[in-house]
Amino acid sequence: MNVNKKVLSSLLIATMAFSTGFLFQQTTPTQAKTSIKVIWRHKTKQTSYKIDKSKAKKAYAYSAKLGSKKFKLAAYANKTFKVSYQQKIRINGKYRLYYYAKNSSNKKIAGWIWRGYLSKVQKTASSSSNQSNSSATNNNESNNNSNSGVMDNSIALSAPDLNDLITASPDLDPNSKLLTLSAATYAKYPSTFNTQFNLSQFADSGVFVNHQATIYVADSQLVNYVDTAINNWNNALGRQVFVLGTQANHTLTVKFGDGSAQGWDGLFSGNTVEVDTNNFNDPTYGRSGISLSPQLAAKLSSISNQSAQLTADTNAQIKKNRTNYENQYAALQQKLASATTSAAKAAVQRQLAVLKSTYEQTDQSLRDSYNDQIEQLRQAVQYAYQDAATSAGNQQITNYWATVIMHELGHALGLYHTPYQNDVMYAPVSDEPDATPSPVKYSWTSPVDPNDPKAYQTGQLSSRDVDRAKLTGALGYW
């Protein structure tokens, strides 16, 4: 989840840089070492793929953790590979999904391949025909069974009948008919449900035991927010899907992490939920949608004006100091050039050294004073927000971080993102780079419901969130 919503005074978002002066040295950055971390690794249903030659002309398959190259993909562009494992890897702060692929005819030709270089092998017409015939048979059985008035869990709907039900259901929101199908239907069409309702099985095996996950909260500051998130999900689903555990007895961990580099507030990684500690400890974060009181707005405006005036005054003082230095430096250089004795030259050089030292000390003193005063103003902004956060602000912060955790627990239940900002599972775009990849019904770059309240403002699950979670339960994802 990546929700970056800040309401800050111009003090905190204004650029406060000033002239650097010509004495500052230029530094050359060293090349950073590539950072690679495996986030999770899962076994998946075996699927056939072929290498997309147009995308993988210069690409390779790799060993685990991308330690070494195994073979060049273009050399096997027409070969079929079997995939039965996948892993999510973080490379210098960016996430990618890799598949472990084995050549169908030569098992020694195997390695981890970025999924963007692979294309799924489509089923043959004969197998599709067989599936269609099978579906038709099952449909007849289902119709016969429906006449008896008893739902037989061993009989699946036909694909056309299921598609008719999906079409009649609201967008990305399975209706009551789709939530009361036979077990055989859910078992037969998981990929259809996944794509039509943006679902997948994201939780590691063992996270849910008897349809329940036991949560250990590693950081005490998060306990109240986790408790709120748990209660909201349990009440909505009508059962104890999440319960609190201990360090010695748990299947899922909630803890602080560092999302500053990747820009996330919350992250689900198979059996762990992380909450960004930096934004969590920022008292001004997560307040989008709060109407500032006239008193708070006036105070922030005053602080912002002080910041702007301080920056302008400091820049003027630094410029004046630099100009004085340059003028005196030029005069002494002329004096040095006209000196006729060694003693006279030495005296001028001592004056130049004193001039430079005085300039640097004055310059540094001005900068230090500026930094001290600007930090006091930053703290004044925080105090102003804290003073104003006794009512709506406190509730907004509670809603925000409880919603972040509800969102990540939604991933544990098997829910991917939606374009509805009223949903806890909302995301601004359909292909967030840090998100666990999942089938999506369609792509989006803006909310479908821009005029509706945001979930993190209300702190409530939508009916769409709840219905989709009930569907993933029927699919066996939790």
Automatic annotation (TrEMBL):
InterPro entries: MetalloPept_cat_dom_sf, Pept_M10_metallopeptidase. GO terms for cellular component: extracellular matrix. Residues 1-25 form the signal peptide. Residues 395-430 form the Peptidase M10 metallopeptidase domain. Residues 126-148 have a biased composition (Low complexity). Residues 315-342 form a coiled coil. The keyword Isomerase does not apply. This is Peptidase M10 metallopeptidase domain-containing protein.
